[in-house]
Design goal:
The structure holds 2 protein chains of 2 kinds. Helices cover about 0% and strands about 50% of the residues of chain A. Chain A is mainly beta. Chain B is mostly beta strands. Chain B is globular. The chains are: A mainly beta, B mainly beta.
Chain lengths: ~110, ~110
């Protein structure tokens, strides 16, 4: 049990809608990274938040946005949903400077766009 | 372009044998490489990290090697057990601060 929680577990939306996914990081971790994992693929880096600021972004359009709160929990928002946005969305928490550079992943939110 | 390649075919292996997985990458210069395990419907779980100046790392029945000249990492599970059946992902550091690029993963099926 990693201590990273995500909500909701599953979500079904239609094309054009907006969605907000939530992540609570492991206690003591101030960095949250979001990944998109399509079926049969590895996770793809969306962006990372460190101390409430975006700290690096992958190759995702601006309709993917995020927030980090003072307690280090985070949200991922996706506007104007497209069918290809259907995927497992994973958040991972870590703490810079830790020896193992290990990321702790949550169970993910399965998003289906119809 | 940048690529991380893992064998797309599932590896079926008899219990007790050694499973060996390969991760090849191009156009990356990672400071470290990690291996994760992922079970269906779950998030990845960290297994091992190996740094660019390390040749080999071990943890219990797991062994990882890292050859920065060949741009390749090998992941070994010795004395494999049915409980080792899962998908194994290799991940490269892409600029520090635990930002990672993942391969597609390689499924391992251990047959009793």
């Amino acid at each position: 049990e990693t201590g990273v929680t995500q909500s909701p577990t599953h979500l079904i939306k239609t094309r054009g809608q907006q969605v907000t996914l939530r992540c609570s990081s492991q206690s003591g971790h101030n960095t949250v990274s979001w990944y998109q994992q399509a079926l049969g693929q590895g996770p793809q880096f969306i962006f990372q938040y460190y101390r409430e600021e975006e700290n690096g972004r992958g190759n995702f359009p601006p309709r993917f946005s995020g927030l980090q709160f003072p307690n280090y929990s985070s949200e991922l928002n996706v506007n104007a949903l497209e069918l290809d946005d259907s995927a497992l969305y994973l958040c991972a928490s870590s703490s810079p400077g830790q020896v193992k550079n290990e990321q702790f992943f949550g169970p993910g939110t399965r998003l289906t766009v119809l | 372009s940048q690529k991380i390649e893992q064998n797309s075919e599932a590896l079926n292996i008899q219990e007790g044998k050694t499973a060996t997985l390969t991760c090849n990458y191009t156009n990356y210069s990672p400071a470290y490489l990690q291996w994760y395990r992922q079970d269906p419907g779950r998030g990845p779980v960290f297994l091992l990290l190996i740094r660019e100046n390390e040749k080999e790392k071990r943890k219990e029945r797991l062994k990882v090697t890292f050859d920065t000249t060949l741009k390749q990492s090998l992941f070994h599970i010795t004395a494999s057990q049915p409980a080792d059946s899962a998908t194994y992902l290799c991940a490269l550091d892409i600029g520090g601060n635990n930002r990672l690029a993942f391969g597609k993963g390689n499924q391992v099926v251990v047959i009793p």
